[in-house]
Every structure is written in structure tokens, then in C-alpha cells.
Design a protein that fits this description.
The protein is an alpha/beta fold. Helices cover 43% and strands 19% of the residues. It has 5 helices and 5 strands, in the order βαβαβαβαβα. A 5-stranded parallel β-sheet has the order 2-1-3-4-5, sandwiched between helices. The longest helix has 13 residues. It is globular. The model has no long low-confidence stretch (mean pLDDT 90).
Length: 124
């Protein structure tokens, strides 16, 4: 268990991912934009989240920028990035440095849960 903030601009995927995580016992906050995610966190006060699960490419700001912004408020935040682009392309565009935890779309429910649970215990 743990609290996961899901940020995905594709609303259907946001909903599906959130449901899978809730059924697995996670407390889920869900947003379809970085701005909405930041508002949700502000409303939570000091409670915060254990894991940020965010798309890499989104309008407004990318997933890395969102992660850095939240981590400045909540140090030690664990982040899992989701991307439909190959990891090499994402890294070449400078959106993520090497070593970041990237879940490649499409993914299975099992891959999703494994990656989020791994982030909770500090594994990539």
C-alpha cells in the first residue's frame, strides 16, 4: 500500500491506471494535467504522496519538470515515468536522464503494479 499520484493527460489511461492501483490497495490521487496535480497536492497539505506516476510528455510541463517541482516540496519523492516514446528518444530529447524509472507504454497491469511497488521500496 501507499499513496500514488497519477498524472496522465490521456483521461482514459489516467482512469484505467488509477483503477488498477486502487484495486491493488493503493490510495490514489489522479490528475489529467500537471497543474491539476499541483492543486491536488496543495489541497492535501502535509500528507503528500509516496510515489508520483507521471507521463513524460504533457502540455504545460513535462513529467520531469513536474517531478522536480513536487520533489522540491517533498524531498525523497519516488517517481515512475510513463512514456509511449522509446526510452532512447526520451533521453535524446533531454526529457529524462539515464537511470530514471521509465515504464514503457503499452504496459500490462502486472508491469504497472511491479514498477509502482518497486518504487515504494526503492527499486528502479
Amino acid at each position: 500500500s501507499g499513496r500514488v499520484l497519477v498524472v496522465e493527460d490521456e483521461k482514459l489511461l489516467e482512469s484505467l491506471v488509477s483503477r488498477v492501483l486502487m484495486r491493488a490497495g493503493f490510495d490514489v490521487l489522479s490528475a489529467h494535467s500537471p497543474a491539476m496535480a499541483l492543486e491536488l497536492l496543495a489541497d492535501q497539505g502535509e500528507v503528500g504522496v509516496d510515489v508520483l506516476l507521471t507521463d513524460v510528455v504533457m502540455p504545460e510541463m513535462n513529467g520531469r519538470q513536474l517531478s522536480e517541482r513536487i520533489e522540491s516540496i517533498q524531498p525523497g519523492l519516488r517517481t515512475v515515468f510513463m512514456s509511449g516514446y522509446p526510452a532512447t528518444v526520451v533521453r535524446q530529447r533531454g526529457l529524462l536522464p539515464d537511470g530514471m524509472n521509465v515504464l514503457q507504454k503499452p504496459f500490462t497491469n502486472e508491469q504497472l503494479l511491479e514498477r509502482v511497488q518497486g518504487a515504494l521500496v526503492g527499486q528502479s
